[in-house]
Every structure is written in structure tokens, then in C-alpha cells.
Amino acid sequence: MTEAGVGPDRAEEIRQNISVVRGRMRAACERSGRDPDSVRLLLATKTVAPPAIRVAIDAGEKLVAENRVQEVRPKFEALADLEYERHFIGNLQSNKINALIPYVSCIQSLDRLSLAKKLQKRLEREGERREVLIQLNTSGEESKFGLAPEEAEEFTREVSRFDALEIKGLMTIGLFTDDVELARPSLRRLRETRDRLRELNLDGVAMNELSMGMTGDLEVAIEEGSTIVRVGTAIFGSRDTSDSFYWPESGNQPG
Ligand SMILES: *Cc1c(COP(=O)(O)O)cnc(C)c1O
User: Fold this and answer.
1) Res 248: pLDDT
2) Which residues line ligand 1 (CB under 6 A)?
3) Does pLDDT of 247 surpass 80?
4) Closest ligand 1 atom to 215 CA
5) What pTM was estimated for this model as a whole?
6) Is residue 123 scored above 90 in pLDDT?
7) Among 42, 136, 169, 243, which one has the highest count of C-beta atoms within 10 angstroms of its own C-beta?
8) Angle at which helices 50-58 and 69-78 pack, to 10 degrees?
9) How close is the Cα of 238 to the center of ligand 1, in Å?
């Protein structure tokens, strides 16, 4: 092993994969007439060990996110010597808030008022603030977390009163499908909802970010306006742990 726990071949593979993903992002931006700097790449690093994440950060990637609170502290502590931005993209249980807050600047998966209230209380006590994205379920699949788009306005109005939470935009997981064109409506729906919410001009609500697009649908997501694509598999390879461990498809309780 070299590069502190990653073999040279594995390290090289990760760097190659990053440049492939960056190329896909650039091409999608060009096709849709967008500035390549208007879309950030977020590394979705669930199940990925710190040495592999380190390779990606050393290669220039500066935005990393985890899904499970248990993975957050050990991994982010192992990488504490590096400068990068840390987000949370998983289902957050209220009793895990304290274990998460010190390690992340943004929670992309805010999806219920009870959670917002508890975050506000915890942050207020410390005199701190965090960025949040509101997670919507735009594909209508029952297996997914997130509010229905119709609930977004009222929810955003309510959360906008919590001064410790800076609403930056919306997040969604697009329709799971082998035909990415079928995912397009669910991604477009997030943008349309964002645009509508932005017109409300709510105090303290920025509503600029659209976190959408993963390994399979990042091109379509960029064409539909994504500002953050969240990529795991295309960079780190396929995961041994099924995603149902992280998402509620099989009734598992993640967190
Ligand atoms: C795992 C995960 C991703 C990345 O998925 P890939 O298909 O591996 O790129 C993106 N967003 C969320 C919320 C995830 O849990």
C-alpha cells in the first residue's frame, strides 16, 4: 500500500474516474449553454474509506458528503488535516443532531418541521448557523425521503423563520430508472419548484442551489439546472452495501 492506505492502481483509478466525471459535467454544461463553474461536484462517499476520499481531495475535489451520522465523525476526523467542505445528504434522525452538527456546514436533507425545530434549538444554543437544502421527493416514489413539491412553499415559509438555518435551495433524488430520459421530469420539477419559491422573495431564503444528479443522471440534471451533482459510484466504484441500507426502500432505518 502507498498513498496512506490506497494502492497506486486504486489511487490512479480514482483520479481517472474524476476526470471522466468532470468531462461529463463539462460536456453537459456546453450542450446546455451553462457556465461550467455554475455546477459543483459533490463526492458522495458512503462506504468509502478515508484513504480513497483523501486521494480525491488531493486531486482537487473540495466538496464531500456522507449519509450516515456514524460514518461522519471517524471519516472526517481521519481527514481533519485537509481543507474541504462537508455536507450531509442522508436521512437525519433528531437524536443524531448533536453528533452531526460539529462536522458539517450544510444539511441537504431537511425534510420535516420537527427536525428543523430541533436543529434551530441546538444551533441557537451555541450561537451557530448552518446551511440547509430542503429535500423534495419529485419522483413520487414512496421509497424516498423528502416533502412533496406541493408542501414546499409552506415548509419553506415556516423554516425561513428559524434564523439559525440558512435555506440555500432544494435537493432531490431523481427517479430511479435505466432510461435517464424518464428521470428528466422529476429533475425539472425541482427546478420549477425552486423558481417558484424564489419568486416569493422570503427573508433570509436564498433558493439558488439545486442539488440533483448522480452517477446515472448527472447530464440530464445539469441540463435541467443542477448546481450540485452528487456522485459516488462513477468515482469510487460500486458499493458492497446496498443503497437500501441508506434509503428506506426495504424498511431499514438508516441514520
Ligand atoms: C449515494 C448517493 C448519491 C450518489 O449516488 P451514485 O449513484 O453512487 O453516484 C447521491 N445522493 C445521495 C443522497 C446518495 O445517497
Assistant:
1) 60
2) 44, 46, 67, 89, 173, 214-216, 230-234, 246
3) no
4) 9
5) 0.94
6) yes
7) 136
8) 60
9) 11
